[in-house]
Design brief:
- The protein is 43% helix and 20% strand.
- The chain has 203 residues and is of the alpha/beta class.
- The chain has 2 domains: 130 residues, 3-Layer(aba) Sandwich (Rossmann fold); 50 residues, thrh gene product, domain 2 (Alpha-Beta Complex), CATH 3.90.1470.
- A 7-stranded mixed sheet has the order 4-3-2-1-5-6-7, with helices on both faces.
Length: 203
């Protein structure tokens, strides 16, 4: 039996931090895991920028509330959920992802937590477990599931390589070049067809 694991941002939703960067005019916030492979460095830099500019969690949540899913994302996920169990595995935070989960029909989602001070400023982040994406696949395999996984960024690669079938979806060139062993698709129809093939059938 298969379970399909997906990243969230870049697969079903636009990148939150790029949207925050555009809304605030702070160019440094547009960097994501597509650009920087070390997630801890990336997050500490983001938190420092938010503190410096006195940007609150509420302001970020207001930006997120205006974001929509990527075109075709809901229809694609609805199809995959009709043929397989699905888990969203994201390095985002519960404080960010709830509006997206509502729009996606509340699939199961594994994510992290933020620490917020009394002024509403993000002061730190707490990962649920180190290497959560890879360890999610390992845990599912221990339960005798086979795993298909899809993501777009550096922080997805360990999950993709641990899965029986890992797929890069709309990845940046640098990720493709560093991991040529992973198949690359750029459209939901292609991703649907490849997952269907791995599941042993086609639509």
């Amino acid at each position: 039996m298969y379970i399909v694991c997906f990243d969230l941002e870049g697969v079903f939703t636009p990148e939150v931090w790029i949207a925050v960067s555009k809304a605030t005019g702070i160019d440094e916030l547009k960097l994501t895991t597509r650009d920087i492979s070390d997630y801890d460095i990336l997050m500490k830099n983001r938190i420092a920028i938010l503190k410096k500019n006195n940007i609150t969690l509420k302001e970020i949540q207001e930006i997120i509330s205006k974001m929509d899913l990527l075109p075709g994302a809901k229809e694609f996920l609805d199809y995959i959920r009709s043929v397989a169990q699905v888990v969203i595995v994201t390095d985002s935070f519960i404080d960010f992802v709830i509006p997206f989960m509502k729009k996606l029909g509340f699939p199961m989602c594994f994510c992290h937590n933020l620490e917020i001070n009394k002024e509403g400023i993000i002061t730190d982040y707490k990962i649920r477990i180190s290497e959560m994406k890879k360890k999610t696949v390992l845990a599912l395999k221990k339960l005798n599931y086979e795993v298909i996984a899809a993501g777009d960024s550096y922080n997805d690669v360990s999950m993709l390589l641990e899965a029986k079938h890992g797929i890069l979806f709309r990845p940046p060139k640098n990720v493709v070049e560093q991991f040529p062993e992973l198949p690359v698709v750029n459209e939901y129809d292609e991703l649907k067809d490849l997952i269907s093939k791995y599941l042993g059938f086609s639509d």
